[in-house]
Every structure is written in C-alpha cells, then in structure tokens.
Amino acid sequence: MSAALPSTSREVRLVRTPTGLPLASDLEVVARPLPRPAAGEVLVRNRHFQVFAGLRTLLGGETDGLPLPTVRPGDTLFGPTLGEVVDAPEGSGLRPGDRVEHLLGWREYASLPVAQVTPATDRLPDPVARLSSGASAYAGLVRLARLREGDTVFVTGAAGGVGTLAGQLARLLGAGRVLGSTGSAAKAERLTALGYEAVYVRGRQPVDRWLREAAPEGIDVLLDTVGGEQLTAAVRAARPGARFALVGALAGQLAPERHGGSAPTEIDSFRVITRGISIQGLNGADHPGLGEEWLTRFADWLRADEITFPHHRIPGIERAPRALEDMLGGGHFGTVIVDVDADGARELGASQR
Ligand SMILES: NC(=O)c1ccc[n+]([C@@H]2O[C@H](COP(=O)([O-])OP(=O)(O)OC[C@H]3O[C@@H](n4cnc5c(N)ncnc54)[C@H](OP(=O)(O)O)[C@@H]3O)[C@@H](O)[C@H]2O)c1
User: Fold this and answer.
1) CB of residue 324 inside a 6 A radius of ligand 1
2) What CATH architecture applies to the domain 134-286?
3) pTM, full prediction
C-alpha cells in the first residue's frame, strides 16, 4: 500500500440506541485508524453510500429473522456503497481504481474479504444509479405480481427509493393505470410528473375512500412498501385474481412507538379467499440473477431516456447523520445518497495510488 494514504478514516457510529426514530444526535462522525487489510481482503475507498429506511430496523434492534445484525452503540453503520479499490490481493482480479460495490458504507475506507465485493462495471450511464432500489421494484412487479398489460397498479410509498422507480417501471411494463401514495402534496405533484395518474396523500382522507374514487373498478396489482391501513384498504379494493407484492412495511418500520421490525395490520382474509388474491413477500435472496437482469434493463431504459433515477445527493460524510434523520422524516424524494467527499464528483486522486 502507498505511504500517501491517510492515517485515519472517518466513520459514522451509533452513540446510543435511539428512543423512537433515530435522530442525527444519536450518531457521531469519528476518525479511526485506517483499516489494514488482512490476508485476502481488499481496501476500498468509498465514494457514495445509500441512506435507507431499513437502518431504522437495524438501529431499533428488532432484527429477528433478518440476515443483517443489529447496530449497537459504538458500532459503525453499514449499507450499500460504491467505492474504488485502493489495494487488492494478488490474483483477486481486482486492481487499484476498479469501481466496486459492497455493504460497508458509512465510512471513508473499508477493508473486507474479496468475496464480499462486487465489481461495478460501467454499464449504467451514471454509476451512482447502482445505488438505486430499482431491483426490488422490478422483482416485485415482474416476479411477484407478474404485471400484465392494462393492469391497474397501486404503489404505496411511491416517493421512496423503491416507489419512484416502481411507478415508472409499471408504465414501461404496460400497466393501464398507475396510482401511488405519499406523505405530502408537494411529493404527490412530483409523482404526477413521473407518470403517476393519481396520488393519495397520507392523512388527507381515509385511504379506503380515496381508493374507491381513484380506482372504482379496483386494483389488479399492489406494490406495497408501507403496509398498515394502506394494505388493509388495498385488500378491500382488490379485483378478482389481484396479485400483491409486499416489499416493505414503512408504516410499522417507521412508527416511533415501535422498534422497526414489525408491522401488524388487519386484512380481511375472507376477501383474500373469495377474490383469489395472492400475497407474496419479497426476499431478495429468493431471486438469484435478478440483479443482473435488472441492471441490463435499467441501463437500456436509462440510455433511451425512458426512465429516470430520482435521487437526492448529500455532499460530505459529516452530513450523513442529518441525512438519515431527514430521510426517515420524509424530507427527501427518491433514493438518498451521501457523497463521502463534499465534492463527491472528484475522481480518485494520484495520492491514493
Ligand atoms: N424486500 C426487500 O428486498 C426490500 C428492498 C428494498 C427496500 N425494502 C423496504 O421497502 C420499504 C421502502 O424502501 P425505500 O428505500 O423505498 O424507502 P425510503 O425511500 O427509504 O423511504 C423513506 C420514506 O418513507 C416514507 N414514510 C415515512 N413515514 C412513513 C409512514 N409512517 N408510512 C408510510 N411512509 C412513510 C417517507 O416518504 P413520504 O413522505 O412519501 O411518506 C420517507 O421519505 C422499506 O420498508 C424498506 O425496508 C425492502
């Protein structure tokens, strides 16, 4: 490794287990000694990382049944990140400067086994689009809900990382009508510009009543990231043979009085039976190969200007604690990404070589 590397790496660490939703003050940015790669490990300089709702669950501690560990006080946060190789073991196939994806975000430098790093080729016009949650939207619509031409689709949590792509995808895949839900009128307006035909604003009126007016004939597909009363209402509004893809459960995950890993709600099971509704949850691990399929199609759609990647970029790792608090509070639209350096677009400089 080059002697020109810094001696420290800044990281975002949990100070205390949050009571309710995490606040910026529950986190701190600290400088730690630069990680030294052990045998078989690669050292990566992180460039961008995703700020995602699932962190509420990891920080809240209700991680039963999840493949990811609880983040405890003193731990560094983690999550999807995009970076560049600084140093890699011989024979790993990786070279300094290669762009890679991995899960040790929320820090400037990460050292991890080669097997935990995925090369991120230049297939997408904007490499940062690799941090989109589109694969989940795509899996939900294509694999779980088996979207058909002309379907009426309801996407809950439409202004989030999953929902902003799900609505556009539903259109591209031939949906007849695309309806969504969000938390504010301003976001509803932006969703309309993205192709959503009608958008429910949470709390404005009972969601049941809104759905009856927006989709008098009922819905064929639900792409659900919210759960709660919106899922209850979707069951009531389902047409015979409707297919529900359950991707997330923000209503429970982001409820301050809960711990982030449960979202109980009532659904009319009688209606599920009589209407022949299928309800399936998305577990990414059940769909190997899906990521590649999604990336190929996403790249084509992006290059043809048929889709956009709605995202909000925040410059500087020091702003990451606030970014999490703001995102959980509904302050952003689309995927939220922190650029590790305040001038996030800067190329890897000579000092790293
Ligand atoms: N199964 C999987 O493999 C998989 C993959 C990716 C994501 N997920 C899950 O899918 C869900 C959505 O992910 P995402 O990345 O799209 O989310 P996100 O963008 O991180 O969602 C944050 C948004 O949630 C909304 N929100 C806040 N409180 C809410 C509440 N009480 N009820 C409903 N919405 C609320 C806010 O938007 P508004 O202002 O519009 O309300 C906020 O901006 C999450 O539960 C996530 O864990 C699952």
Assistant:
1) no
2) 3-Layer(aba) Sandwich (3.40)
3) 0.95
